[in-house]
């Protein structure tokens, strides 16, 4: 849930700032390059696109040029459904060596291309040689009912314990009606986002040369909630996650099926960074019942969510101050982490003065997110677990994926509203 905050004046400002500063001169980039940005511990895991992929020309684009636009997918969910994603592929990236893949998840009511345009991931991708993909959420609200816009299924549909019933604005979307998953705390559709994300990984990695050990995910608000859900329910898939002002609903801090307890070994593979405004009322960092313009939803406290992850990683039980390049400033940016993790990963959170939808000034959020994510890769054993986890989710339906091929990329998205 949450409100979309798109500030195009901010986009113009930070783009101009980035253009006047060589990325190689940014301190955190120097740090990663000094460690060997593409030489992390462990081996790259090449996708099949490294061997027989056709590159961006498969999608009707010109090779050896920056590539940006919509790609449609047709999936066999509980019914066939048209879905889509927006992608940014820098020139030459994913064509000769395995490239990292970053997922960016928009907030409720937003669109993937607008989310992409309002953040700097594409610009940094060109400088640091990674690909960014932005899945598009669906809106299948029932005509005449409550329509809360595009959003994400985070596995809570039908659960009556995640809200104060007489305070929330909620409704049951068509995909939830059809699966018998309605409840007074429903607020989004019930298509399977795990299937969607898995299908995107498969579609991209068959066309481009992707490093399966370096797949990352970030998202804001409802997209941050989905980021939490994905790393819980697809353990061993993402090397690191960075939700922005998004939290699990009550009872889902350890996963919808308590995956952090059931699959500790693979959950240990994922490092976590969370960014959150101190004055957020919509998803309060201290947890509890939301207020502001979206009252009545009950969230897990951020510190308890991260304590669960810290236990999985065998870190210290209490978070302590962590220095970063971005400390201080007008919004009093400050970070904390659970030190001593035996997994070699970090569980970290950073606060700043601001409400829901606010971010630190400039492009601090993008910078610290990339600084954090790009440090990690999956161990080989965790990558082997991916097939098992996906098979459980898809119930043997791996062959039901249909990817629309040779689709011309465009700035408009005719598939987006096919099921709205």
TrEMBL record:
<dbReference type="GO" id="GO:0045493">
    <property type="term" value="P:xylan catabolic process"/>
</dbReference>
<keyword id="KW-0119">Carbohydrate metabolism</keyword>
<dbReference type="GO" id="GO:0030600">
    <property type="term" value="F:feruloyl esterase activity"/>
</dbReference>
<keyword id="KW-0413">Isomerase</keyword>
<protein>
    <submittedName>
        <fullName>Peptidyl-prolyl cis-trans isomerase A</fullName>
    </submittedName>
</protein>
<keyword id="KW-0378">Hydrolase</keyword>
<keyword id="KW-0964">Secreted</keyword>
<keyword id="KW-0624">Polysaccharide degradation</keyword>
<dbReference type="InterPro" id="IPR029058">
    <property type="entry name" value="AB_hydrolase_fold"/>
</dbReference>
<dbReference type="InterPro" id="IPR043595">
    <property type="entry name" value="FaeB/C/D"/>
</dbReference>
<feature type="signal peptide">
    <location>
        <begin position="1"/>
        <end position="19"/>
    </location>
</feature>
<dbReference type="GO" id="GO:0016853">
    <property type="term" value="F:isomerase activity"/>
</dbReference>
<keyword id="KW-0732">Signal</keyword>
<dbReference type="GO" id="GO:0005576">
    <property type="term" value="C:extracellular region"/>
</dbReference>
<keyword id="KW-0858">Xylan degradation</keyword>
